[in-house]
Amino acid sequence: MTMYISATFKELTRKRVFLVTIVLTFVFLVLFAFGARELADVAGQSQSSPAERLLNSMVLMVLGLFFAQFLSAFFVLFSSMGTVTGEQENGLLLAVAARPLPRWKLYLAKWLGHAVWIAVYSAILFLSVIWTIHSLAGLPVLAGDVLRGFGLFIWMPLLLLSLTMLGSVYLPMLGNGICAALLYGLALFTGLVEGITVYEGSHPALDKFVLLIGLLLPTDSVYRRSLYEVIGGADWAGLALSDMGPFSISSVPSNSFLFYTAGYAALLLLLGCRAFSRKDL
């Protein structure tokens, strides 16, 4: 497995999109830190109340994690959308599959190789945003809240990775990337719409549509649960998220739903292993 993890990293570093992603991530973190420092300076000069400064830092935390999960998702898409069909087209997959290793193990090894580096990238993003807000904007955070949010934040791109790799068995690289991006965008859009409609009461048809999309691709639901945990869970800090427009959390995914996401990922991996084992190389 270590060999495939190392090979995946070498493959990622050869792609130009990897360099572009690293550069844009660095730019985002620098600009985000600059904005957090400026906000803290303005709040200090205006002598705003502690509650107002806390709310401002909380809003900045929500925005930072929103764009961080956006970057993490697109790192998944660009790095894994051609895992099978892309390597099949350039002949690399045939050489790898010739080794005395069951195909399902090869598929899992490729998933694990991508998962390790995606988790590392997501962890750096998450911890950078949390550290920036805590140190520059003065937002108090608890280690337990951060740890729970950290695990869920990393779990979100791994769900998307499972879906993208399954699509790479059936679809060409570009088609798989477009399909996965559209599904991710749809899940993100429904989450934003649900946050807006929190002011207008319950809409049965919309609630069913949001639930359906959440079951089809639960990435946005997992992200919102992660955000809920980081901000403070059911404490008063969590209540502040109910008045932030499209970034509001009108409903928090339950622990049962998180168990569903585990089964969801396992099913996608099982289908991917089965499809890859039967694929004509």
Protein model, in words:
The protein has 281 residues and is mainly α. The chain has helices spanning 2-14, 16-45, 50-80, 85-89, 92-97, 103-137, 143-170, 173-196, 204-216, 219-231, 236-239, 255-278. It is globular, with a radius of gyration of 20 Å.
Short description:
The protein has 281 residues and is mainly alpha-helical.
Write the layout of secondary structure elements.
Elements: H1 2-14, H2 16-45, H3 50-80, H4 85-89, H5 92-97, H6 103-137, H7 143-170, H8 173-196, H9 204-216, H10 219-231, H11 236-239, H12 255-278
Helix pairs in contact: 1-6, 2-3, 2-6, 3-6, 3-7, 3-8, 6-7, 6-12, 7-8, 7-10, 7-12, 8-9
How much of the sequence lies in strands comes to: under 5%
Shape: globular
Average of pLDDT: 81
Number of strands: 0
Taking the alpha carbons of the first and last residues, their distance comes to 22 Å
SSE sequence, one letter per element: HHHHHHHHHHHH
What share of residues is helical? over 70%
Structural class: mainly alpha
How big is the Rg? 20 Å
The biggest beta sheet reads:
none
Helix segment tally = 12
- Poorly predicted spans: none
